[in-house]
Amino acid sequence: MNLLADPEFVIDLVARHYGVRHEEIVGTNREHRKSFARQVVMYILQTRGGLGPVEIGKALNRDHTTVYHGVRTIAGRIRMERVERDRLNDAIADAVAPSILLAGVSEALSEARAVVRRLEGIQEQIETQTGYRVRVVA
Predict the structure, then answer these.
(1) Per-residue pLDDT tens for 9-23?
(2) Is the pTM of this model over 0.70?
(3) CATH code of the domain made up of 3-100
(4) Largest Cα–Cα distance of the chain, in whole Å?
């Protein structure tokens, strides 16, 4: 699952990174800090999330032409400012890494549960066949 295709996730990520509220990104405020954060959301959703301008516009209560402008603005700025790109990539990595780790932990936990179920089955077979009570110690 691509978390960067989820508008709510990206809005929250960018809001935290730039110190604005979720409502300010989807709202009508035109203050530079808030509109810049909004344009960053547009850029991430299109370039990293693969969403189209119409989908992005719906998520941000904006027209698709506004999304085109926002994406072009950030793309131009990123080309000119490597530091901003590195900071943006760091913020994305910081947000996505815990989710990837949790997915791995969840998969490992499922595998561990399957092993326990198999051990319980073996325990039951031994007890049935021998009449002895068997205790599995982990």
Answers:
(1) 999 999 999 999 999
(2) no
(3) 1.10.1750.10
(4) 77
